Amino acid sequence: MRVLSFGEILWDVYPDNKYIGGAPLNFAAHFVKQGGSAYMVSALGYDELGQIALNMLENWKIGTDYVTILPEIQTGKCLVTLDESGLPSYDLLRDVAYDHIECKIKDKEFDALYFGTLALRSRNNLNCLSDVIKNNEFKEIFVDINVRPPFYSKESILFAFEHATMMKISDEELPIITKCLFDYDCDYESASKRLSEEFGNLKMIVVTRGENGSFAYDCRSGKSYMSDAKKVDVVSTVGAGDSYSASFMYNYLSGRSIDECLKQASKLSAFVVSKKDAIPDY
């Protein structure tokens, strides 16, 4: 199974350390760890962080054929500062490498495409991704909406819903989505049904609910599925949603039942939150 993962590669830079991240990268790494094959479509700067990132992708066996190196623009960063109480604040730098993704992919064989909305904050990337979708055939287009205020718009959210066959939304993001698209708030079951009616291309909607488990709605059959969350001692939630997406997609493409997809995705994300790293060994 081969997936194409489009979007940001960035570094979370703390006062005393730095960690590589970006939802599309985390997704790709976990998809490979599941036993699949993943290629990134992104851009890095011609700098130290860019070179380290490229080496890490190669070590994780993520395909880098479509990762562009840009000499004039720095690698993506999110500057993290801590207040006196240790609470973090985040500054996602603008106009960095992943805002300038360049790719020409045509007639390559990929089972699925993955993307989120953060990288769509730039018009360049929206156009680039449109070309990727137009010039290639994917069995599935999996979107993890990944709303990051203020880096989203009604246009980018609509683009995501108009092209996705499978959509993952967190319970924190759901009110933002429903207010943006429908101008009212509703629960995850009602929202899933309304989204299914509004966007006929959708096959599956998955809503992750933290410690309350996860929910899936089969848009074709109208059937709902529920899965409990595995109870663990939480160390860090960074990357948990991305591992969930990777596991769900891998198991779905493998032909497993929706119940099993939910179960395996919940199991992996629980393991990830019990670790410090977003991409731990397993």
Commentary on this structure:
With 282 residues, this protein is an alpha/beta fold. It has a domain at 23-41 and 60-67 and 104-273: 3-Layer(aba) Sandwich (UDP-N-acetylmuramoyl-L-alanine:D-glutamate ligase), CATH 3.40.1190.20. It is built from 8 helices and 13 strands. It has a 9-stranded mixed β-sheet with strand order 5-4-1-8-9-10-11-12-13, sandwiched between helices. α7 packs antiparallel against α8. It starts with a strand and ends in a 9-residue tail after the last helix. The model has no long low-confidence stretch (mean pLDDT 93).
Helix content: 25-40%
**Rounded to an integer, what's the Rg over CA atoms?**
18 Å
Q: From the helix content, strand content and strand pairing, which structural class follows?
A: alpha/beta
Number of helices: 8
The profile of the biggest β sheet is:
9 strands, mixed
Q: For the record, give the distance between the C-alpha atoms at the N and C termini, rounded to a whole number.
A: 20 Å
Number of strands: 13
- Order of strands, widest sheet: 5-4-1-8-9-10-11-12-13
Low-confidence stretches: none
User: Mind telling me which CATH architecture of the domain at 23-41 and 60-67 and 104-273 this is?
Assistant: 3-Layer(aba) Sandwich
Write down the overall mean pLDDT: 93
Query: Rough shape?
Result: globular
- Do you know the CATH topology of the domain at 23-41 and 60-67 and 104-273? UDP-N-acetylmuramoyl-L-alanine:D-glutamate ligase
SSE order: EEEHEHEEEEHEHEHHEEEHH
Work out the strand percent. 15-25%
CATH-defined superfamily of the domain at 23-41 and 60-67 and 104-273: Ribokinase
CATH class of the domain at 23-41 and 60-67 and 104-273: Alpha Beta
